[in-house]
Design brief:
The chain is α+β, with helices and mostly antiparallel strands. The chain has 2 domains: about 70 residues, Orthogonal Bundle (Arc Repressor Mutant, subunit A); about 130 residues, 2-Layer Sandwich (Endonuclease, Chain A). Helix content is about 50%, strand content about 25%. It contains 9 helices and 10 strands. The strands form 2 sheets. A 7-stranded mixed sheet has the order 4-10-9-8-5-6-7, with helices on both faces. The longest helix has 28 residues. The two termini are about 45 Å apart.
C-alpha cells in the first residue's frame, strides 16, 4: 500500500486536505518545526499552525520544545483506531434516538435520486441489507458490464444470505446469475434499453445506465406491491 492509498484512507477517516498534507509530511519526514513544515508543504504559517492545532486536538500530532522551538511529530498511529472506536461508541449511544426520530419523520412515499457508481453501490448494498427476495426486469445486462468487480461481490453476498432473485432478461445477455437466481427470458426481438428495474422490499429502483449512471428509488409499499403483481404476470408469460 502506498502514500496515495494512505491519503485516501485518511480522507475517508475525515481529515481535511491540509490535515492530510501535514500528517503525511510528518509521517514521511519525521519530527520538524512549524516553519519547516509550512515551507515544505507550501502552506502559509497561519494555516499551518491552525492545522497543527487541529491535529493535536484530535490526538494525531504531538510536540516537544527544544531551545524555545516547538518540534512536531505524529502520535502513535494506533490513535486513529482508538478515535474511530470512540466515534462508533458515540453513534451507538444515540442510535435509538436517531431511529425513533427517523420513524417519526419518514414519509409514506419517498423518491430519491442517486448519481454515479458510488450511488449505485449504495442501492445494491441496500438490497443486501434488506435481505428479502427481489425481482429484476432487465434487457441490457449493464450491471455486470459496467461494475464487474462489485458485481462479483454482490453475487457472493446474495448466495451467502440466500436471497432469492427472479430475473427476466433479454435472451443472449450474460448476467452471471447467482446460485439463488432463477432466470427467464425475453425474446431477442425485444430491443436493448439503457435501463432496468429492480423491485425489493417496499422499493422500486430504476437504473439508468447513462455515461454517469443514475438510479431513481421510489419507496412506497402500495406501488412496490403493484409492480410485483405486474412482474409475476410477466414472469408467467416468458420462457425459461
Amino acid at each position: 500500500m502506498g502514500i496515495s492509498e494512505i491519503k485516501e484512507a485518511l480522507e475517508y477517516y475525515g481529515l481535511t486536505y491540509n490535515e492530510i498534507k501535514i500528517y503525511i509530511f510528518l509521517l514521511t519526514r519525521g519530527r520538524n518545526s512549524a516553519g519547516v513544515i509550512a515551507k515544505e508543504t507550501q502552506m502559509d504559517r497561519s494555516s499551518c499552525y491552525e492545522t497543527l492545532k487541529k491535529l493535536m486536538k484530535k490526538g494525531l500530532v504531538k510536540f516537544s520544545i527544544e531551545v524555545k522551538t516547538r518540534y512536531f511529530e505524529i502520535a502513535d498511529p494506533e490513535v486513529l483506531i482508538e478515535l474511530l472506536n470512540e466515534k462508533e461508541d458515540k453513534i451507538k449511544s444515540v442510535m435509538q434516538d436517531i431511529k425513533e426520530l427517523y420513524k417519526k419523520e419518514k414519509q409514506e412515499s419517498v423518491i430519491k435520486l442517486y448519481r454515479g457508481y458510488n450511488g449505485l453501490k449504495a442501492v445494491f448494498l441496500d438490497i443486501i441489507r434488506e435481505g428479502k427476495n427481489y425481482y429484476v426486469l432487465d434487457s441490457s445486462g449493464q450491471f455486470v458490464k459496467r461494475m464487474p468487480y462489485f458485481a462479483e461481490y454482490f453475487i457472493r453476498e446474495l448466495e451467502k444470505k440466500k436471497i432469492k432473485v427472479k430475473h427476466i432478461v433479454r435472451r443472449g445477455i450474460d448476467i452471471h446469475p447467482s446460485k439463488t437466481t432463477e432466470v427467464r427470458f425475453f425474446s431477442k426481438k425485444i430491443p436493448l434499453t439503457t435501463g432496468n428495474t429492480t423491485i425489493y422490499g417496499d422499493k422500486i429502483a430504476i437504473f439508468l445506465w447513462k455515461q454517469t449512471p443514475e438510479v431513481i428509488i421510489i419507496e412506497d409499499k402500495a406501488t412496490s406491491e403493484l409492480y410485483k403483481d405486474y412482474f409475476e404476470i410477466l414472469w408467467k408469460n416468458v420462457k425459461k
